[in-house]
Design brief:
The structure is a homotetramer of 397-residue chains. Helix content of chain A is 30%, strand content 27%. By secondary structure, the first copy, chain A, is an alpha/beta fold. In chain A, 63% of the residues are buried.
């Protein structure tokens, strides 16, 4: 049994606590911290948490605490990480790790220098679908990954601080792009260096400083592309989808709006439908088990097992730092309008990873460009001559 | 922490053990029983279970056991229930409870007379989608439930005993109809008496005595219909869907083949895709978290919490008995070719439940049959005169 | 170019006329008949039809008319068929042909005795999806057809006469079951005799005499089942789906609510969405080309080509008569609560069609019941001994 | 009746001819031209075309020809357009219009100077789904269009010339990006000036000079983005999807792989499934009516009606020229790695179109950033003070 200090009582603190306590869990949130003593007390009462406090120092340094979960706004992460690391506790920090790579790197150094366990709570790489898809990719089911599109869009976040660029570090990119970028990185391979980014970002709808809509492409050293799409202006609920294109296959994941649960209701009070749902009547698309579908369940299972087993979790602060570095380049590109290099002074992955894709030989003289079955049942091949480069086609039976 | 004796080491024993141990569970299978000492030993080793035995008596009566889970073929349920009840243990029995209602009733009486906790392991009413859908229905989101279609079809079960009518009690109906019937009962209301059944059953494909395909309709006292569709001859994987039609809404659940995970693979070894999947290349539809999607996770959570809380679980042996009584009538109808009454000498639900449906008044003289928006934008109403019964239509703006 | 007399100016007359005139058609509605001269005149003006009349006799007997399309309420079909046949015109009658088999048989005899071309306008067997699915089935793609589920449900028809049992001949079964029955018959084989029916029918919601919800099963001589599901109480739009289960495959068709067009709209005036849609905001599921999706386009193409080519169309009055005979038995079964034989004194299909399904041999002594890949990667077979009937299993690599 | 000269006997010539002749069409291909007299003869025989020739001049200048359809490789378009324009015929040219904007502009000038009718055969803006979606957008159903993602990917084209950059003008962008760009332009508004492009393009898989995978973003003057995704390396068939995000709604169109037709087949010869399908067994997703789903049917209907009515078709050479100009900028950006301006010396749309998006006032002092329903049922608003810019939140009941 692990005893956890939960820092933060907002929506994410609530989701985390529910996920930690859910089903027949042997772990418990043992102390909750909020900047407001009242909110801490209410939260403790609601979730039957024995201790609560408005003192960060107390929360992170109690003797009866094994691990600290940081579920506070982005501008508070660094302070919390420092305090928890200094207290020698395992530190679990919500996404994004920092508001920028410099901040993230300092947090990485803090936990490493303190020698404490650290986990980056990137839940969306832990959804059951993503975990199974990653196993398929790693087993070679779709060949080399060429391109990943990861998309998270909804009508905008629920708390004021998200909309304040100083506190959050940006807009939709820092809020949700961090998910999309790390999802793509998992599919493409976390050992493959992300090289450069192009990014469009704009404030299309809301009266804010930060971007509310953005699309970016991250080019990896092996030629693969990780595309992120984020919006706080999407209508229809929360769209959470990943598409992975490989040389030998394709994977499409829909995590939220189309998961096999469809409901039409003529109206009346139907109660809570799903996170960020926009309507309560007509056709609705609830999600069966939201904490599981968002990856919380499997994330805490992996991270807490990692603490028990004294191993590294699937995602740690180094991953959070890489994500922040990519986001920094994305913001730079959105302003400069050129592909911006990703600045990664600390790189722990592979170097000189080979290019994706593999050319197939057709015969001694030709490379195979394409093979297709035609409507009349015949098979046509398109070939390239190895030396002349001439492209020809012929029908084979 | 609850210590569990697992009876059975087949596919269901395996799934149950995985579900009980999964994530950060505080419960453990503490002893495993198999009719074969070897299989018991191998199973114990695989799942790190401290004790194993080929003695049923020992398994159910150990002092260090809190609860017995029966995961053995149908013809062994009664013997196991009797032994576990006599030993004073909580008894959790897989579906179907008995091979027929008489057997089920004796099991119900055994646990009730022994005064032990009993749970009927009907996992499919515990899928996260089903639980959420039931909450929506109970909150009135779709009005009165008029009709439920529950369907489970696949290419046939994995063990020999299922195909032997003496051991299993029948074919696809007893194997899977038990799920469908109880799903419909949950949506329609477990307090509403099931009155009669009509059923088609045939052995269309396999060289067996029992039915490999069947469709039946159960009429409830309030006029609602629970339709079950089962087949061991379905091609394409496992089709697990529910449809619920209400006076004010509709619910469609797809638990297996279309859950938002789509994968194309050009081939090669892709490994295990999903329970009862039929292909390993082309378009595949894996399920992210199979134990959760099948309800095992939430089922054991509810049942073990019920033991801790000394309350009745969502499904107990009485429910298993009702399901067996409905199945008995279905088999009778398949032979007699008439609607057969459901024989339920022990009925603990309501009597004289009112009819589904409610007529709306249009004005003092007319009842509203229908209101529709036409292609040209106008609204048409169809009315019935209260006294003359004449049907008329008119356009309202 | 064919010149057509359109009888009827209601929704079906409108849809038919649009389908006949659509795109670059060479055919034209040349005269329109309505019981109301005003409606005939308005309709003619709207669709640029040169002639209109309130005289049935004039409409069917004009010299400049090649074919008569009957789009009037069910109780008027026989009179129109008689008149058109007497005038020697090609007769195209909407579904259902008659209100019962006796009426349908008289209509069949009328056109056959007059020697005129006759087509049964069963549009739903002509949807592009259905046509392609039928070609796949006929090419053997799914083996023997074992079971067909055809479903049409919506919140109820748009005109008063549908709700009047005397005029229409019944309720949801005669209105929509006629589609479902003929769809199943096409998949199972129109030469296979439908033998008997069981049917549940009830008036669950509306203040009418006729059934507003029904499910029936038609057993064919070869053991195949055609299941129809119809409702005037469905909420959420129009649900139009077919499922076909074969020994070697499966086909699922969704014609209306999920065709790859999804729209969320926060509200406002969005205009006509789709036939029988129930909402104008939230998630909507429009159909791209409604006349095509409903089969009108391909139906008229086949029927008018058949007139030109002097051949029989895909569906003629004989098919309409068979459908009515099945419906008669369904109504009888709904009352008698037993399987009712289908009375088909005129049967033009095959006799003694062999049973569906084919048993596979495993080795000299055993029949193969089942073969499955297990989670651990092994393959298990379930076998039946040819002489003893014993069921065994073994693992093969 | 229009008599058409078809230039080209490849796949596109075949599809066009089928679409022109389909159903009860009053138009006919009257003469077919191929560079090979044999292919012209075979084609004429197959489609019952009265005349065939290997002389381009003859084909375009016959007296009995009303219109010329150009279905030849890209490098031949200009020559054909010049010849047909000189002959005074209506000219219908397949996509892309030119290999680059200079070529396209010369073709535009040729037809305009000759005063002949011209249509750009961009079929994908004519799919029934697209047409209906455009009507919804124009009626305001989704508010201002913010972003369009149009995607066409498949395993590569069927003829050798596509793979030859000299003949085609490029790779996947010129081949399919032309569709995606014009689809987005239709949704965003053809009168809104496309300003600049960023584009990633790579040759990831095939041994060719041109790109086989690319993603680009086109920024329009009003701030809307048209995103195109094209690949010749996609596995799983042909993925043809559009997504449109608006301030008040969302539209998702799936034209090919998920249209409500699903088939599982255990194998055997199932015949032609769909254009660019990759497998013949397992789960397949055929398209009911391919020419209609690809827009050919409605495209020719509009274009030929436009000839009859002496009006401009939905898409003409000017549109083809704009698309080429955008593609030119995309290729430039793929090389330069910066956003490239779109060079449009001839611009016939609006100037100074207002920005998308509209800010909503909450009260006299605040603008509304967001309104959300929370899990506990409350409603939270996020506000921005008009003068201070401070972001706050509060709960409203």
């Amino acid at each position: 049994m692990l005893r956890i200090a939960m820092l933060g009582t907002g929506l994410i603190g609530r989701f985390y606590t529910e996920a930690l306590h859910e089903k027949r869990s042997r772990d418990r949130v043992h102390c909750v911290y909020s900047r407001s003593a009242d909110r801490a007390g209410e939260f403790a009462a609601q979730f039957q948490i024995p201790h609560h406090t408005a003192s960060l120092q107390e929360a992170v340094s109690r003797d009866d605490i094994d691990a600290v979960v940081i579920g506070l706004p982005n501008h508070l992460h660094e302070e919390c990480v420092s305090a928890a690391a200094a207290a020698g506790k395992a530190v679990l920090c919500t996404k994004p790790l920092g508001r920028n790579a410099a901040e993230a790197l300092r947090m990485l150094q803090a936990v490493e220098q303190a020698g404490v366990f650290h986990a980056y709570l990137e839940d969306l790489v832990y959804t059951p679908k993503t975990l199974k898809a990653l196993r398929s990719v790693h087993s070679g089911a779709i060949g080399d990954v060429l391109w990943v599109r990861s998309r998270e869009t909804h009508p905008g976040p629920h708390s004021d601080w998200f909309w304040n660029k100083e506190l959050s570090g940006g807009g939709a990119i820092i809020d949700m792009g961090c998910h999309c970028i790390e999802i793509a990185r998992n599919f493409i391979g976390k050992d493959v260096r992300p090289v450069e980014v192009t990014c469009w970002a704009d404030t299309q709808v809301h009266p804010i400083e930060a971007e509310d809509h953005a699309v970016g492409m991250v080019r990896y050293e092996n030629g693969a592309i990780g595309q992120f799409e984020v919006s706080w202006a999407f209508r229809g609920g929360m769209d959470l989808r990943d598409e992975v294109a490989g040389t030998d296959g394709t994977i499409w994941l829909n995590h939220w709006l189309r998961t096999g649960f469809e409901m039409f209701t003529a109206g009346g009070q139907t109660g809570y439908v799903a996170e960020k749902a926009e309507s309560e009547s007509g056709w609705l698309f609830p999600v069966g088990d939201e904490p599981s579908a968002l990856g919380y369940t499997d994330m805490f299972s992996d991270v807490l097992n990692a603490i028990d087993d004294q191993r590294t979790p699937k995602e740690d602060f180094y991953d959070g730092y890489v994500v922040n570095a990519i986001i920094d380049a994305a913001y730079k590109s959105a302003r400069s309008k050129i592909w911006e290099p990703i600045d990664l002074p600390v790189w722990r992955g592979h170097e000189n990873v080979p290019r994706v894709g593999a050319v197939r030989e057709f015969d001694a003289e030709h490379l195979l460009i394409k093979e297709e079955k035609m409507p009349d049942g015949s098979r046509k091949v398109i070939l390239r001559h190895k030396t002349t480069g001439t492209v020809t086609q012929k029908t084979v039976e």
